[in-house]
Amino acid sequence: MHKYIMFLASIMLVVLSGCGKGIHLTNDEQGLPYAEELVEKSSEQIESLKSFSVESKYVYKSFENPNLKEASGSSSTNTKIEYVKKPFSMYSQHESPDLERIVKEYVTEQYGVATFRDGQWEVGPELEGYTSGMIENNKKYVDPYHDLKSLTTQGMQVEQKDGNYILTVTGNQHEESAHEGFYDAKTQKIITLVVTTDHQSKLTYTINKRTLLPVELIKETETTLDYSGDKKYSELKVVHTYQDFNDVNEKKLLEGAYKASDPRFSEW
């Protein structure tokens, strides 16, 4: 009887571990995980995946006066990305309802880069450095925690709702660069503009408690662009939804990349 009970216990341990219960988190006095450890463990779960997809909705607004909040311009974009880690293979589709435009792109180690715009596929350039650069940029793009890593964090808070943790992060990012501006006839010199960019962001992650995989990320950013005293203001809200964990059709993706990169299939 004792051996039978031990056998059942070992089976239950395997089952629970397979469901993500084997992931250990240190809880605070409220029974919630610490934010830093939650991000670390969730990042590890993302890193262990072979593939996943992301659907995103972007809404951008610009303002002449941030206090009035009367948008002087706005745009929206919907994207879908399918991502396979090894060998790196990615398909993305960007739809801009305002412009009535669709852009598709394959970035793969095997077939390079192919982009569909204005009714036709464009390949290349056929440069190894160009392809590797695109791969590195897109690896950052699909990382749910890339934006968090680039922020100077001001606050991190963890709550729980239903079967998920809700991680809220606030922070800012400051960038400064110099650009050649215009020619001043009086001084006969090129005036250099110092451009500073300040982002104030709020990131809200929904993370599955059992698997620690992200379900959703809402990113809200207010940006101030200062061109040597001439300021521009904007807001960006992005909603990323993560899905198809280890379930992206790699064969179909690579077949599409092959056709897009071969001129013989330019009309497909």
Helix-strand pattern: HHEEEEEEHHEEEEEH
Number of helices: 5
Strand content: over 45%
Query: Assembly type of the shown chains?
Result: single chain
Work out the number of β strands: 11
Structural class: alpha+beta
Radius of gyration: 23 Å
| Uncertain spans | 1-20
Largest beta-sheet characterization = 11 strands, antiparallel
**What value does the average pLDDT take?**
85
Order of adjacent strands in the largest pleated sheet: 6-5-4-3-2-1-11-10-9-8-7
Give the CA-based shape: globular
The proportion of residues forming helix, as a percent range, comes to: 10-25%
Q: What's the N-to-C terminus distance? A: 66 Å
List the helices and strands and how they pair.
Blueprint: H1 2-18, H2 35-48, E1 51-63, E2 71-84, E3 89-96, E4 101-108, E5 112-117, E6 120-123, H3 128-142, H4 146-149, E7 152-161, E8 164-184, E9 189-208, E10 214-227, E11 230-243, H5 250-261
Antiparallel strand pairs: 1-2, 1-11, 2-3, 3-4, 4-5, 5-6, 7-8, 8-9, 9-10, 10-11
